[in-house]
Amino acid sequence: MAKVKIDDLHLYDTELAGLARRGYQGGMPIQLLSDAFLYEKHGSYFHTIDGRFAKIWKLRGMDASLLNNDDLWSLSKGLGDVLNKYPSGSAGQFIRHTHRDIREVLGIYRAGIEGGEDEFALEIANSIVERQIVAASSPEGFFTKLSTEVLERMREDSLAEIEDEKLRNNVRTLLMGGDPWAEEGEDDVRANVTEQIEREVSQGRYPFVTDFYLVLLWSPDYLFGKFIDNTAKNALASMGLIDANKLAHKEYTKHARRFGQLCHEIGQALATFGFQPGSLNGQGLINLQYQLFNPVRCFKVDPPKYRPDLPILDCLKNPSQVAYRETLNNAPMFASVETEEKGWTIHDSGVPYFIRPVSVLGKPTSSFPGMLQVAMSGIESESLITINWSVPSPVAMMSRLWTRGRMQSGKEAMKIGDKDLLAQQRNDLEKVKSKISAENANNREQFFDVSLHINLMGFVEAQVDDQAMQLENMLWRVGHKESLRGDAAVRNSMPLNFRKSSMKLFRRDTPHLTESLSHLCPFFVEYQGCSDPAILMNNRAGQPIYLDLWGQMTNTAHSLICGSTGTGKSFTFNNLLMALRVKYRPKVWIIDKGDSYESLCLVLDGNYIESPRLS
């Protein structure tokens, strides 16, 4: 065969190779940002570009407001039982995606609106929906149109509930930052030398929605290793001793059945413990990736339709010949991604969208259910939280314990370190051995090599960077704001993108036992309301939820709104009354002691009867 001349390389180069050979540094092809390749509809599973089988379940978040401490631990134990079903050599992901796409929630609410003859009720409903949309698209959230005058009026309405004039003035002075008990006269230079710092609480500012996903990644086994197996088969096929296509079909079917059995066991366990799993299909993954990679376009144009026209075996046989529209790593990509040392910047429709990852390098000293959500209190942002793990083989696991035991014995023999600390380390080692022992039939656990990445997202770079810096200090002193390998952290966080081999260079993994990993997974949510979209309001986290005071799920005719002065009781009740007008249009009687609802009564064309005050 004639040797290709340097001058003729352009005839064989790909576009990117040609640019690189000429000294142009082109960007990464967009399809290389995702490992997803194909979807097999007959088994509801995926193939990655490196030949692994994958399964994605969409889970329901657990309503923590309805759970006591025992329930929290019981649910985490249930998730631990699910994680124990991951076989050695497999990998997995737990993904929590918090985003501002509330169109589905608003669509269900709109569908239940009946305008009829009451045009005012229809205007109220449209106003409620518009307020949610504005809050979702504005950097200030629900406070976008909140002026100083509105805040002053709300404060005065709350103070009007206090009858004692002196007490009312004192509370007003406190709210304004003054001291109502300070004596009048000349200021004392030795007094008032400190200012009280109040804890900032930033929660419920944005109407975010949260989705949860559990991923199983499994590599099929090959006889004597993949290389030798393929080489032997090719040699036999070339001599006509075997039919390569039939043999490939047989092997693929065997692996698919084995993987299907694993998925069935995990899916049944998820259903048993109340996670209500749903199997994500090819279109579902395209929609998820489309939302992640196109933050602006996804609100203007519907996702592309997934069209798997070629048989799965033909696609696996010649991956390079598969059309782009049939591959999951290319079909949903329309924006351009700029990979940086501190993360990603997605340029979509001329608008930059920033992703800044914060990783966990180490392990907290203790664990409890929902620990990550507690640590992230006050961080409000669109985010993608991904926990990646791989299950080491039993041989590797026992080798680690043996090495650790030898190191511990050496320290004890040389009397290095504190005596009590050495005793505690020895005790911890024995506890780990007992937890993973085959004799521990009831509470047996297994090892996971875990990496945690919290990717904060937003359109304002300074705000996202500040939140990432704040989050770094909140993660149990083991948080790390990525400044050199942020691009790798974000890529590893995307669905189906985690590979165990990537940890050889990108060292972010830490050994965890089953219980510790289940405590780390953030699957708890705030109060979720009910299923009937009668009233649209927001829970403490800002998520739009439905309420129904007279629905089938309401077991009592009484409700209580309580709180201290200035916490928004009247504001909440006003919104509740306005929302009731949309669907039920009830007759309402209010005993208004503080004259707080006179204006609302007049606006709604009601009758306000003022009774004479008794002296």
Automatic annotation (TrEMBL):
Keywords: Plasmid. Gene3D superfamilies: P-loop containing nucleotide triphosphate hydrolases. The keyword Magnesium does not apply. Pfam families: P-loop_TraG (PF19044). The keyword Repeat does not apply. Residues 536-609 form the TraG P-loop domain. SUPFAM superfamilies: P-loop containing nucleoside triphosphate hydrolases (SSF52540). InterPro entries: P-loop_NTPase, P-loop_TraG. It comes from the Bacteria. Coiled coil: none annotated. This is FtsK/SpoIIIE domain-containing protein. It comes from Pseudomonas aeruginosa. The lineage of its organism: Bacteria, Pseudomonadati, Pseudomonadota, Gammaproteobacteria, Pseudomonadales.
